[in-house]
Structure formats: structure tokens, C-alpha cells
Amino acid sequence: MLRNWTEDNNLENIKVVASDMDLTLLADDGTMPPNMEELICALDDAGILFCAASGRPSYTLREMFPGLEGRMALCSDNGAAITCRGEVIFKDLIDVPTYHELIDFTARDGRGCPTVCGLDACFILERDREHDAFFRKFYKQIEYLDTFEGLDRDVNKYTVFFPNRDAEDVYAELYRDAWSDRFSVTNAGREWIDIMNKGVHKGFGMTHLCERLGCSVDDVMAFGDTYNDVEMLQTCGHSYVMANAEEHMHAHAKFLAPSNNERGVAQVIERLLALRA
Fold this sequence. Notes:
Blueprint lengths: L2 E2 L11 E4 L1 H5 L10 H10 L3 E5 L4 H7 L7 E5 L4 E4 L2 E5 L4 H14 L3 E6 L3 E4 L6 H4 L6 E4 L9 E7 L5 H13 L3 E5 L4 E6 L4 H12 L6 E5 L5 H6 L2 E5 L12 E3 L6 H13 L1
Parallel strand pairs: 1-15, 2-3, 2-13, 3-4, 8-9, 13-14, 14-15
Antiparallel strand pairs: 4-5, 5-6, 7-8, 7-10, 10-12, 11-12
């Protein structure tokens, strides 16, 4: 059974605070805790690095934290790219023939919209532009193409968007067994299936970040709510699942944090800072 968030008392060695974004740091309406910039700066002043750990690309995350790039880290594309204080310290690319194989697979299945996640932009078919407003929440740079034929850009994640919100069903029915032997395949909520190179996930990203910082993953406080957070929660020493998460996620964390709408991440950070004062 998960312990309450107030029971995590061995916080003197925390070096990194890592948080998922949607339904974890962000409320249901997509807003950030109003004091988040202040908290990130206070963490940095205390020698603790805040890391946004998300399926979003780094260029989108940078826009979500304007002016803070030099005071935080980004674990983007589910760990396929890591930026520390404005410097890219790691990236993992899917080779061109392989991501075209994935595109063809999605096309044959006929469900979902393929979104090819490049380092500088996301590539989406013109036919799927009708979902542009939703895509823009996650990809601030989009290139719409009539066809993926000939696409050869650097790509570190392949994602399929399911507008009918049946990604979990399609993942279990088709994608998991078809690709899990070659790739890291996960759900990012009910709308997305994310595919990265084998072994790439948020836990993998946090391990790379800690190696760069010279600290242990045992000294990371991590927050998440869904499938693509599992490895990060299992990897990090102080793991919190949000109160709004589905109950099956409780098996992967040590502590239960207040919900995203209660600004649970901010509450735990405030407690950490108070204990370290």
C-alpha cells in the first residue's frame, strides 16, 4: 500500500526533482502551478535540479518554461533526448528505414494518425490537419506533408495519435506484441502510443541525467500518473504517483501525492524546500 506523501522524510540527499507533465504537473485544464517558476528557481538555489520528464519534444518543453532553460533539465520524448541547463547531453535516433517501417504498419492498420517526432519538428500528414489544435498542445513546430515518402530527417520518437481515445485498446491488441521485442512501446494516456528505440524510456533518461550530474538515481524525486512514467517511477529512489492516477499505477511508486488539480507536485516541492531550509 502506498504511503502518504508526508511520510517521505529522508530528503536531505535529493539532487533532482523530475515530473511528468500532463495530469501530473499540469492540471486538467493544462495549466502549470502558478508558483512553478519560483519553485524551480528555489530548487536550483538549494542545489536541486528540476527536470520536466515528458513525451513532449524539447522545443515544446522549452516554450513551457520560458527563461528557465539554464536552471533546469528536460527529459523529452520519453527519454530519447536529454537537455541539462540548456545543453543537449544525450539523444537517441531511430534510423530512417525503421521509422518508415513503423509508418507503413500504422497505414496498414488504418487506425490512428502517425506523428513522426523529429528533433526540431513533428511531421504529420496533411490529411490529419483537422486535429491541429490538439497537436499544437504537444508539438509547437509541425510540418504537414502530403506523404511521408522521402522523409529522412533525424527522428527520436514515433507516435500514433488516436482521436477516438482507444490507444490503450489498440496497444494491447496490436502494437505491444508487434513491436515490443524491438522497441520501447508504451501508452501516453488514451490518445497516444509512443515508440522509442529499445530500452529508451523516462527511467533511462533519468539515469543519463544522473550520470551527467554525478549523483545517484536514489537521490531523485519523481512524479507520474500513467504508463509512460512507470520506468521512471521504478528507477528513482523517491517515487510519487498522483492521486488522480488509475489504481494500477500504485504498484510502481512508493508514495501517493495529492492530485494534479490540487497542485500535488508543487505541494511536495514546497515541503522539500521547507525541510531543506
